[in-house]
């Protein structure tokens, strides 16, 4: 599974989310990492106390912390996300998840109503994330949270992200929301049914069941309201769509498609784009083709960008957004008959050829990321091919 925004792409939160705890400037010590582990923990305690947290609680959290070599191993060997949209979405959106999602929305209808009223986030959006992250709480991870955070904060790869998370864990413990001995979660420190980091829980956590605590592991109401609070913070626009399947005309200016190229819904309709169900909104939207012009097609409205904030993988993002539309009543997408894609070796070969021609594809890693999609679309147009951003063996052969 690709890493969530709140894990690896959260530098803005990592640097700023703790403003609610202190008005003191971040000290140089906040960037310290490595060296003797106990001395490192002593520095974390000192920083936590300077932010107004209890020295006694900091000792309780940090005294038993240990380096977890399995965490380091997982961090250095993260699987890259190379499945195409049709493959991943069919695996991720099972009949079980659709049925269970509908049941959860019914069971917690009152909580979801509060989430929509207070934060503007509809139930299907929250439920899709809930399903994809942990199968509604069934798979939350078995790594000791404090050990995982201490390990990653001490490691010098991303201390600016994980050191504040370790301090936030102390804050959670002070609130009675984290037991350092028993709290378990993902290897990168995410906790609970919607997999959030301690810093986000401290800032956006909501008590959904009225027990005075925020318990994302055991309380579904807490998880639902906290997710809604976080999604609203990311910029969710109340009452607006996020993704809509559309039917494409036979002939089209494919070079106008892709994230970042926006037109009003009215303009897309004038170009022959038709809604699969319902009506096309006149909001600005990008026309996305996850597997090219012969596969499914969607209009991505401004709220789609919130999915990219949650997780930067285009395939995960589009799957989560589409899953939410299904939970909201949309039909199964028309899969079409996409052209064959590239193998891992072929994708790396394509990236190398594109880079040699001056295109910025980022790392030669075999991943069809935004850089490779944009470069593919540009070179397709240059070669007189349909510029839909989907790399094929035919394109590779032409290069």
Helix and strand layout, with pairings?
Blueprint: H1 5-8, H2 11-16, H3 37-50, H4 55-62, H5 69-76, H6 85-92, H7 95-107, H8 109-119, H9 123-134, E1 143-144, H10 145-154, H11 159-174, E2 184-185, H12 198-204, H13 220-233, E3 243-247, E4 262-264, H14 265-270, E5 274-275, E6 284-288, E7 298-300, H15 304-310, H16 314-327, H17 344-356, H18 370-382, H19 393-398
Antiparallel strand pairs: 1-2, 3-5, 3-7, 4-6, 6-7
Q: Name the poorly predicted regions.
A: 1-31
Count of structural domains: 4
Counting helices, strands and paired strands, the structural category is mainly alpha
- Tell me the fraction of residues in β-strands, as a range: 5-15%
Number of E-state strands: 7
Shape: globular
Summarize model confidence as the mean pLDDT. Answer: 91
Helix content: 40-55%
- How can the largest sheet be summarized? 5 strands, antiparallel
Overall description:
The strands form two sheets. Strands 4-6-7-3-5 form a five-stranded antiparallel sheet. It is globular, with a radius of gyration of 23 Å. It has four domains: 1-82 and 145-186, no CATH class; 94-140 and 191-233, no CATH class; 243-327, no CATH class; 344-398, no CATH class. It has helices at residues 5-8, 11-16, 37-50, 55-62, 69-76, 85-92, 95-107, 109-119, 123-134, 145-154, 159-174, 198-204, 220-233, 265-270, 304-310, 314-327, 344-356, 370-382, 393-398; strands at 143-144, 184-185, 243-247, 262-264, 274-275, 284-288, 298-300. The two termini are 32 Å apart. The chain is mostly helical. Helix 4 (55-62) packs across helix 11 (159-174) and helix 11 packs across helix 12.
């Amino acid at each position: 599974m690709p890493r969530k925004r709140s894990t690896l792409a959260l530098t803005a939160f990592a640097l700023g989310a703790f403003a609610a705890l202190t008005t003191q400037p971040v000290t140089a010590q906040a960037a310290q990492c490595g060296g003797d582990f106990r001395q490192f923990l002593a520095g974390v305690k000192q920083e936590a106390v300077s932010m107004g947290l209890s020295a006694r609680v900091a000792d309780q959290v940090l005294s038993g912390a240990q380096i977890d070599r399995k965490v380091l191993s997982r961090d250095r060997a993260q699987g890259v996300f190379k499945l195409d949209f049709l493959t991943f979405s069919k695996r991720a959106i099972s009949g079980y998840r659709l049925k269970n999602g509908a049941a959860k929305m019914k069971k917690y209808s009152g909580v979801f109503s509060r989430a929509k009223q207070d934060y503007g986030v509809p139930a299907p959006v929250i439920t899709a994330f809930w399903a994809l992250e942990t199968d509604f709480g069934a798979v939350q991870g078995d790594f000791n949270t404090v050990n995982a955070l201490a390990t990653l904060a001490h490691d010098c790869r991303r201390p600016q992200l994980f050191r504040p998370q370790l301090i936030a864990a102390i804050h959670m413990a002070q609130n009675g929301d984290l037991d350092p001995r028993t709290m378990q979660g993902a290897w990168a420190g995410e906790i609970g049914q919607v997999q959030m980091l301690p810093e986000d829980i401290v800032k956006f956590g909501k008590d959904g069941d009225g027990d005075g605590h925020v318990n994302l592991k055991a309380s579904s109401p807490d998880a639902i309201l906290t997710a809604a609070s976080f999604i609203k913070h990311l910029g969710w626009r109340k009452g607006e769509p996020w993704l809509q399947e559309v039917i494409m005309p036979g002939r089209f200016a494919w070079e106008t498609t892709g994230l970042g190229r926006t037109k009003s819904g009215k303009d897309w309709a004038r170009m022959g784009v038709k809604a699969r169900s319902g009506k096309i909104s006149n909001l600005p939207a990008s026309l996305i083709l996850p597997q090219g012009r012969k596969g499914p097609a969607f209009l991505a409205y401004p709220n789609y960008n919130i999915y990219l904030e949650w997780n930067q993988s285009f395939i995960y993002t589009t799957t989560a957004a589409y899953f939410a539309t299904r939970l909201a009543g949309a039909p199964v997408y028309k899969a079409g008959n996409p052209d064959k894609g590239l193998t891992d070796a072929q994708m790396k070969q394509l990236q190398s050829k594109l880079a040699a021609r001056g295109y910025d594809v980022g790392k030669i890693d075999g991943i069809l990321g935004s850089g490779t999609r944009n470069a593919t679309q540009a070179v397709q147009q240059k070669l007189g091919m349909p510029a839909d951003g989907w790399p094929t063996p035919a394109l590779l052969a032409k290069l």
